[in-house]
Amino acid sequence: MAVYLFEGVKPTISPSAFVHPMAVLIGDVSVGDGCYVGPGACLRGDFGRIVMEPESNLQDNCVVHGTVGSSTVIRRRGHIGHGAVIHGCVVGEEVLVGMNAVVMDDSMIAERSIIGSCALVKAGFVCEPASLLLGAPARVVKILSDGEIMKQREATQRYIELAKRCLSGLRAC
């Protein structure tokens, strides 16, 4: 992985987290226990702070950044799909962000919500727990059922297990 000290601040990575060798971490970035960071992911902690809480995942080609002085937080078991952009916001516990979705500054995505693929969550957006957000701009289309939340948890669990598998079994060849 490419890890860069920026203005005296170095990323911190839990020993139990997996960060792919082709990911880039710059400055004020914290990757918690059991996290997964995929190839091509970029976490730029140069303007603001970035926190990945335990067991969250950031898949291939995601960008995480923020504005000056912001905190961009992916809470515990947050699940960020391929190519998503997370910018200066808080992604709540057990939230799934779909592939190529964008979540903008000062948004607060409540726990157990799902943001659909290619959705655009505008700056300052706030939602209730277990919301399904779709569209560009994103809007709440319904509250998720217990069954839908369970499927999301199962998908996240696969990435928690993948982090462990990669730590023990991924080797360049």
TrEMBL record:
Pfam families tied to this protein: Hexapep
Xref: InterPro entries: Hexapep, Transf_Hexapept/Carb_Anhydrase, Trimer_LpxA-like_sf
Signal sequence region: none
Protein name as it appears in the record: Phenylacetic acid degradation protein PaaY
